[in-house]
Amino acid sequence: MKTVFFDIDTQIDFVFPAGALYARSAERILPAVAKLNKHAAANGIPVISSMDAHRETDPEFRDWPHHCIVGTVGQQKPVSTLLEKRLVVPNTPVELRLDAIDQILLEKQTFSAFSNVNLKRLLEHFNADRYVVYGVVTEVCVKFAAFGLLDTGKRVEIVTDAIRPLNDENGAKTLAEFTAAGGHLTDSGRVI
Predict the structure, then answer these.
(1) What's the rounded Cα separation, in Å, for the pair 190 and 101?
(2) Strands 47-52, 86-89: pairing kind
(3) What's the longest Cα–Cα distance across the chain?
(4) Global pTM?
(5) Which of 21, 130, 135, 145 has its CA 20 to 30 A from that of 183?
(6) How many domains does the chain have?
(7) Does 18 map to a domain?
(8) What is the pLDDT of residues 17-73, one digit of tens each?
(9) Does 64 map to a domain?
């Protein structure tokens, strides 16, 4: 079964207590995220890592604190989640050169990874039968990615020990909605 992993927004502003939009205890998922990403690289599974890449004036900041501003430490991914052979894909049409690439850093300016104009072409290129989703935060960016992937008609799994919500109740509600829509829950032990 051809698989693609989606590492959603595991960026310093979300996963560490000093981050601008910290999800409580998110640093605890980093070992699982790192293992999943390394497992993918070792087994020829592409990893698409979405990343907020905001400008100071992005509309999102009407509702959320400033976070993941391009060029700041908070916008970076923790080193443990990065793979050696990676490519940054901005949210502008670009030629996709994916030979020998393990990790795609997919920049976005909204909640949804699908807002990046290149994601559709990436999905067509990889032609996966299964998507494995993890990262932060459960009820926002993970939700948008997982539900967008469900719309492809392929199998979508959320790795429950590699996600964190901003709000526990909203996170649980999102997972219930996801399974009701045909999604599957798993854990990193079963994926690896």
Answers:
(1) 25
(2) unpaired
(3) 42
(4) 0.97
(5) 21
(6) 1
(7) yes
(8) 999 999 999 999 999 999 999 999 999 999 999 999 999 999 999 999 999 999 999
(9) no
Q: Could you tell me the two tokens for 24? A: 């409580």
**Backbone phi, then psi, for 189, in 5-degree steps?**
-60, -40
Say which amino acid occupies 146. Answer: A
DSSP 72-138: SGGGSPPGGG--SSEEEE-SS------TT--EEEEEESSS-GGGSTTHHHHHHHH--SEEEEEEE-I
**Residues 6 or more apart from 190 whose CB is under 8 A from it?**
none
**Which amino acid is it at 170?**
N
Task: Choose among 146, 124, 127: nearest CA to 137.
Answer: 146
Q: For the domain that residue 87 is a member of, what is the CATH number?
A: 3.40.50.850
Tokens (6 digits) for 137: 């935060």
Identify whether 170 is part of a domain: yes
The residue range of the domain holding 112 is 3-56+69-191
The candidate with the shortest Cα–Cα distance to 106, out of 8, 23, 26, is: 8
Q: Is position 61 within any domain?
A: no
Parallel, antiparallel or unpaired: strands 184-186 and 103-108:
unpaired
